[in-house]
Amino acid sequence: MVQLDKIDARILEILQENSNRTTKSIAAELGMTTSPIFERIKKLEKEGYIEKYVAVLNTKKIGLKLTVFIGITLQGHTRSYLEKFVKEINNFPEVIECHRVSGNFDYLLKLVVEDIEAYETFIISKLTLLPYLGNVQSLIALSTSKETNAIDLSRVL
After folding, report:
1. Phi, psi (rounded to 5 degrees) for 105
2. Do 70 and 138 meet the contact criterion of CB atoms below 8 Å apart?
3. pTM for the full predicted model
4. Is the CB of residue 30 less than 8 Å from the CB of residue 49?
5. What is the pLDDT of residues 32-90, one digit of tens each?
6. What is the tens place of the pLDDT at every residue in 144-154?
7. In what order do the strands lie in the sheet with 133-140?
8. What string of DSSP letters covers 110-157?
9. Three-class SS string for 34-68?
């Protein structure tokens, strides 16, 4: 794995702010030419520092007004239970994050849905049909004061 230098870190910060930036504009900001910036970005992609480029959507504008976090405890903890659960959860488009966690739950899910009725439909028609569920606890987000995918690279460099 290639060690990041300050220029690589700055490129990653710029792309986290706006992955649609051109190589030319990044090079201009860093006082460099486009060729070395292009090569660095390709290296960062190849080495896995950049996994993918995405557009962050405004969920409210597209009609997904409710965010729900669900803590789930499974009935069993065998490898087969865990694999089956993850396979099923990955098929639910409402679930935008699924984390295996320590503590009171086995998994923590993040959902975005239209409204409370859509959430109830998800619970009744999808989640509760999974045979290996133990406990399910929901937390409905009333508001969001911070939501980001950006990593502060100064913490790790």
Report:
1. -125, 160
2. yes
3. 0.87
4. no
5. 999 999 999 999 999 999 999 999 999 999 999 999 999 999 998 888 889 999 999 99
6. 999 999 999 98
7. 95-100, 107-113, 66-74, 133-140
8. EEEESSHHHHHHHHHHTGGG-TTEEEEEEEE-S--S-------GGGT-
9. HHHHHHHHHHHHHCCCCCCCCCCCCCCCCCCCEEE
